[in-house]
Each structure stands twice: as structure tokens, then as C-alpha cells.
Amino acid sequence: MDNPAAAPPKLVAEDLHKSFGEKVVLDGITFSVADGESLAIVGPSGTGKSVLLKHLIGLIRPDSGRVIVDGQDLWALSGLERNRLRRKFGMSFQEGALFDSMTVFENVAFPLRRSGRSPAQVRKRVLECLEIVHLEGVDDKHPGELSGGMRRRVGFARAIAHEPEILLFDEPNTGLDPIMTDIIDEVILEMREKTKATIVTITHHIPSARKIGDRIALLFGGHLLFEAPPEEFLHSKDPAVRQFVEGRARGPLTDGIVEIGRKHLSEGA
Amino acid sequence: MRLLEALGRLVLRVLEQVGRFFQMLGRAAVWAVRPPFDLPELLRQMVRVGWDSIPVVFLTTLFTGMVMALQTYNGFARFHAEGWVGSVVALSLTRELSPVLTALMVTGRVGSAMAAELGTMRVTEQIDALTSLATEPVQYLIVPRVLASIAMMPLLVLMGDAVGIYGGYLVAVDLLGANPVTYVDNSFKYLTVQDDVVSGLIKAAVFGLVFSLIACVRGYDTRGGAEGVGRATTRAVVSGSLSVLLTDFFLTKLLF
């Protein structure tokens, strides 16, 4: 956000705290994303990146702190209002999270069920979305018949079907081969182009974060340790950022500067 | 000391589960009366709970009726009361055996499937995906399953009543040589629709609510991958069956 005064931020996380039992996962997370901006959050596995993302859409309720979407506090709303606010979001899940009892077509059509569109319009929109993610001719297949990369892209198509203003991507290219990883990144950029949506992506893949994000933030030990535009992030002298960018086993993220770092290593996560 | 501790933990866990059950019951009740109503999904679940359970319920109640006839005949013959076999079979089936055994079989067949299905949806984030698509999972997943179970259980039990009584007739008349006319006459002589048949059907509806909601909650609350799904499924059947038997006692006392 070069000029925060220009427009109110689309999405704000304000001092989010979350613990599961003894384990503190989020320990005061604050950031904001401007309308149309793309933020990539990186960090080692098991540091609560998915948990953070799920807070943004209200799948998990923070112990304290607020999530503000278009000026509305997500948890100050009633359940029905919160549900309505969620229509502004489209979320892509780690393994796609496709409804496996439904075909690809039915999956992508799901968000359109109550949109008041005629069946012909729904059909048109579904095929349009599948085309955006470069999947054609698979609409009558079931998720089980698709490859990982295809499932991921069906998940994208489902996430954008109802024309959301905010897109959340949970590890969009984990577990895919390098070429498919890059294809997925390209698809995300194309989707951004076409939908003009605000985007938050979490990933542990630095090249993806660099490609997708206008800004990159490093999440570790329940804090956002560093936040900068891609080039600045990649050339930062911050030791934690350096360790993660260079992918070294030894460094502040694993050496016990942070207590959780040590635990992280011993658990081998 | 350790025994007390374990006992205390057990009590706490049971109380927690009972609390969770009623919490979910409240949520399901609220969402059941809120539009939109998903009729196709309700019908689909009714087929799964009702129609697909017919073979199992048929065989269970048929053999129960047959065994009842054999056993009571054996006992009653000792004081020359063979004529009452039909009455006993009909009464015990409609009031007790058909509802309870049907509920137990359906818990095993349908409850386990519900828990496994919802559990898998939970661990593969499909339930989160529903929420993210502004669809309330309780309304979309739990309400149709519970409503279908409440609606279909009485129908299954009604069929079970008829099949069981017929099973008893088969054994008594064809195997043990009872007089068919007297047997049928005795079967229905003391059977009243309101007290016996209806009380059994009310039980059935309550059992339907209990087993399906427990199974759904088990599945909905699943944690921890494939192993968690297995655990949820087992627990759905165990606590579902136990709860059916427990509710049966209190309902019987209430309805008598």
C-alpha cells in the first residue's frame, strides 16, 4: 500500500490472536490489503498460514482481534449477515475441496444455485469459468477422475463463479510438478486480470509468491515478521527472510531464537 | 484415586457430548425452518434412509417375528397357552422389538454412512468450502438427513410390524401347526392401534432423530484425517445405538 489514504482497505486483520489448546498459532497479526491488491503470505509449513487464511473469511473465529471486510467487522455481524458478507469471497482450498458427490459442472455451479440465474445463464457462467482456468470438456467428470492440477483449477473456477471481490488461495500449487506450479500461477494472474479481485495467497513457494504478490509477508511463530514488495523482500537483509528465501536448514527460523522454531524442527514438520 | 479420576473424565465427556447434541439440535431446528428448503436433497436422503433400508429391516423383523413365535410357543406350551402366541408376538413387535431393532439396524447401516460421509467432507475441507460459498453446512448437510430419518423410521417400523407378525404366523401355523384362523384372530384381538402401533411409531420417529443427529454431529466434529473418520464412524454407531436403547427406556416409561 503505497498510499494508504487513497482508499479504505478492502480487507483488514487487526491484532488477531488464536490458540488451539496450549499451542499459540496466531500471536497478534495485523495487516491490511487494498482494493485490487495481491498479498502473498509465505512461511514454513505448520506455522498457521491456513489458519490465518481461514480467519479472513470467518471459517475460524479469532480468540481476540478483528477481521474487517469493506469496513464491516466480520464477527460483529449476525450469522446470516456474515453469510451474506461471505459472498464477497471466493476461496480455493489446499486440495481443491471439491464436492466429490458432484460432477465438475455441479461443483462450479454450486455458488450460483441461489443467484437467481436461469439454468442457461448458469451453464454459460460455468463454462466461462472453466474456460478462464483452461479446463474444457471435463464438466461431466467427477473430481476423483481428475489430476491434482485439474482439481485445483476446478476449485478456482468454483471460487470465482459468483464473481467475488476477494479471492483467497490456500497453497494453490503445493504438491504439483514445477510446470503445473507455474501454470497455476499463470491462471491466478489471468483470473486477477479478469476479475480485478483483491487477492490473498498463502504459499511456501517463493517463486509463486514473487509472481502473484504485489507484496510478500513472512509469517512465523504467530507473527508477521516482515512485509515488503517482492524485490525488496527477496533482497532483504533480514536474517529470517534470508533463511526462508534461500531455503536453509539453519537460521533464525529454526535455531531457537523463537521457541516455536525449535519445536518446529524437533517435530520435523 | 485414579479410578475416580477416570470416572470423572468419563462423566465430563458424556455431559459434553449430551450438551453438544442439544446445541446441534437447536441449530438444526433453527435452520430447518429457514428458507431456502432443499426438497430434492431431502428426497434423496429419504431414499437412502428409507427405501435402501427395506431389505435389512425386512429380514431383521421377519426373523425376529419367527423367533418370537418359536420361543413363546415353547414356553406357553408348558401350561397349554399356545393360543396366546399370536398376541404376544404382535404386542411385543409393535410396541418394542420392531422399533428398537429397526433403529439399531438403521443406525448401523445409515448412521455409520452419515458419519463417514460428513467426516470425510470435514477432513477434506468440503465443509469449510460450503461455508466459504455462503452455504450453512448445518442446513445443507444435517437438516435433510435428520428430517429424512424422522420421516422414514416410522414407515420402516410399520413395515417391520407387518413383516414380523407375518413371520410369527409362518412359524406358528406352518411349522408348529397352529390353527390359522385362531392365530390371526388372537394376534389382533388385543392389539390396539393407538396404544400399541402408534406408540411404536412415535418411538421410531424419536429414534430417527436421535441416531441421525448423533451420527451427523460425530461426522461434523471429525478431527484428524482418515483415522478420525474411522473413529467418528465407530462412535456414531456405538453412541447412536446406546442412545437409542436409553431413549427407549424413557419413552416406554412415558408412553407406556
Q: Features of this protein?
A:
heterodimer; A: 269 residues; alpha/beta; 6-stranded mixed β-sheet; 10 helices; 23% strand; globular; B: mainly alpha
**Quick check: average pLDDT of chain A?**
85
What characteristic shape of chain B results from the CA principal axes? elongated
Main interface by residue count: A-B, 26 and 13 residues
**Sheet of most strands of chain B:** none
Radius of gyration of chain A: 19 Å
* Tally of individual helices of chain B: 9
Low-confidence stretches of chain B: none
Beginning-to-end CA distance, first to last residue of chain A = 33 Å
Counting DSSP E segments of at least 2 residues, the number of strands of chain A comes to 10
Quick one: overall form of chain A? globular
- What string gives the helices and strands of chain A in order? EEEHEEHEHHHEHEHEEHHH
Q: Residue-averaged pLDDT of chain B, rounded?
A: 92
Strand order of the largest sheet of chain A: 6-7-8-3-9-10
In DSSP terms, counting alpha (H) and pi (I) runs of 4 or more, how many helices of chain A? 10
Largest sheet of chain A, in brief, is:
6 strands, mixed
Q: Estimate the strand proportion of chain A.
A: 15-25%
**Distance from first to last alpha carbon of chain B:** 41 Å
Q: What oligomerization state is this entry in?
A: heterodimer
How would you explain this protein's 3D organization?
- The complex is a heterodimer of chains A (269) and B (256).
- Chain A is α/β, with parallel strands linked by helices and 269 residues long.
- Chain A has 10 helices and 10 strands.
- Chain A starts with 10 loop residues before the first strand and ends with a helix.
- By secondary structure, chain B is mainly alpha-helical.
- In chain B, helix 2 (39-49) packs parallel to helix 6, helix 4 (85-123) runs parallel beside helix 8 (193-220) and helix 6 crosses helix 8 (193-220).
- The radius of gyration of chain B is 21 Å and the shape is elongated.
- Chain B starts with a helix and ends with a helix.
- At the A-B interface, helix 2 and strand 6 of A face helix 5 of B.
